[in-house]
Design a protein that fits this description.
Strand content: 15-25%
Organism: Acorus calamus (Sweet flag)
Order of helices and strands: HHEEE
Helix content: 25-40%
Radius of gyration: 13 Å
GO molecular function, one term: serine-type endopeptidase inhibitor activity
Family: Belongs to the protease inhibitor I13 (potato type I serine protease inhibitor) family.
Structural class: alpha+beta
Protein name: Subtilisin inhibitor 1
Largest sheet: 3 strands, mixed
Number of strands: 3
Number of helices: 2
Shape: globular
Pfam families: potato_inhibit (PF00280)
């Protein structure tokens, strides 16, 4: 019950630094717990992306080992 109250009063997250080093799949599972409906875009490190902002999109940048290389963010 205390967890539910804490999560209800917490501001919505827009960044997940705690998933850096996890696989893309593990990161997606953790982020889904916070966001619910979300569209993921897994991007290899160094690739270019568009600059448009989408509130239901989270980009996950990965290194060659499929590990998250920087904190995923909404946008």
């Amino acid at each position: 019950m205390a967890d539910q109250k804490a999560s209800a009063t917490r501001a919505p997250k827009n960044e997940w630094p705690e998933v850096v080093g996890l696989t893309a799949e593990e990161a997606q599972n953790r982020i889904k717990q916070d966001m619910g409906v979300v569209h993921f875009q897994v991007v290899p490190q160094g690739n270019y992306v568009t600059m448009d902002h989408r509130p239901q999109r989270v980009r996950i940048f990965i290194d060659p080992d499929n590990k998250v290389s920087r904190p995923p963010r909404i946008g």
